Amino acid sequence: MNARVGVIGTGYVGLSTGVCMAHLGHDVVCVDLDAAKIEKLQRGQATIVEHRLDELLFEGMEAGRLRFTTDAATAVADRDVVFLCVQTPQGDDGAADMRHVHAALAGLEPHLKAGAVVVNKSTVPVGSARSMTRTLTRTDIRIASNPEFLREGTAIDDFLSPDRVVVGCDDLAAAEKVAALYAPLGATTLITGPETSETIKYAANAFLATKLSFVNAIATLCEQVGADMVDVAKGMGYDRRIGADFLKPGPGWGGSCFPKDSRALVHIADQHGYSFDLLRSVIESNDQQFDRMAAKVRSAAGGSLHGVTVAVWGLTFKAGTDDLRDSPSLEIVQRLQADGAIIRAYDPTVTGPRPGLPDGIQCCETSVQACDGAAVLAVLTEWPTFTRVRPDDVAAVMPGRTIVDGRNLLDREAWTHAGFRHLGVGR
Ligand code: UGA
């Protein structure tokens, strides 16, 4: 059955949720305080880089099922379900900062339709749905948790083909109302209490981060013992209990979620008297991976980076997004800069200075241009376009002959054939 849905916040999560809910046939209003953003969306222009977003934006607006406004009060007045998708940045102590969530809820409460369900989509500390319920003065409103499991770059496909839908609420009718929104997807659905649902989100992200830190540690061991991590990952992944996904070694994990959520989970555990040492060392091991990658580049340059030009391919935290937040590439770049390296970078989505980009990076227009005068090339994001660069074109402009391939992306044989030394991860 089609419902009237409100979405508060049009960042990655909010916008993906809004367009997908409209795609499922619901009537959707998306709200944001940022008037410039809303105007752009009203013109049908996406405000983030996300595969299939333009298509679903067009489809929803064309069908009259998707609207954008800055007027939250009017927007929520007839909504059955309102998703809160506002940011929960990390506070100084590692805990998620709930200020925006509380402010949004307080602002909406007087205007909500009778019996509306307000849903936390943002990742919020365990116990949030319950503590938010306590702040309400109205007794007809229910707060539910419905965590998102969307990866940037494939958020739309992840939303429309979910591994599961999780809804947490003590009021079964309210939980079922939220779960019913996803019914057209025919997905496995788990209805739980709010604390359980909130914990599932943190546990899933922390487990994936743990898997990656483990994989990167095994990759380091592979380099010491002469094993090949690519085949080790295959051999592990065929075991269905382990699974073949998320076994790629890399420069370390990053992005707007894993670092923030793993630190927040350590904090939540501390608050409840449990010292989550395992997760602490997973985070520490990731920092060591950044150090190891920087050390690899330093050693490829002959031991010192002072005044040495390093070409960097890829600045975003992974391919398929323009997001620089907590990017492993930038972690490594900053370590190289601290050692005196001159960075020439190419990333298909980063053309020049912008918020979040460290100073002193020369952004180039092509992959080959970034290699001009470089002693070492470091591949730090797995953009497919890098695999199409011809080794001879790089050889013509780059005096150095070593590539530190932090993603095992390039065709080792082709580059070696062209005279390059190719250093991968775990190989
Ligand atoms: C992650 C989760 O995968 C989503 O399920 C979750 O909903 C989301 O966080 C969130 O909490 O909102 P995302 O941050 O978009 O999604 O990124 P991932 O694709 O999971 O990648 C995270 C990091 O792990 C990246 O730095 C990536 O390069 C790295 N990674 C991933 C590897 O190094 N190797 C792999 O095999 C996979």
What is this structure, in a nutshell?
The chain is an alpha/beta fold.
The largest sheet, given as strand count, sense and whether it forms a barrel, is: 6 strands, parallel
Number of strands: 14
- The overall number of domains is 2
Poorly predicted regions: none
Features:
single chain; 427 residues; alpha/beta; Rossmann fold; 2 domains; six-stranded parallel sheet; 14 strands; 14% strand; binds uridine-5'-diphosphate-glucuronic acid
Describe the structure.
This protein is of the alpha/beta class. The chain is 41% helix and 14% strand. It has 16 helices and 14 strands. The strands form three sheets. A six-stranded parallel sheet has the order 3-2-1-4-5-6, with helices on both faces. It has a six-stranded parallel sheet with strand order 11-10-9-12-13-14. Helix 1 links the parallel strand 1 and strand 2. The relative contact order is 0.09. The mean pLDDT is 97. The structure holds uridine-5'-diphosphate-glucuronic acid (UGA). Uridine-5'-diphosphate-glucuronic acid (UGA) binds next to helix 9 and helix 11.
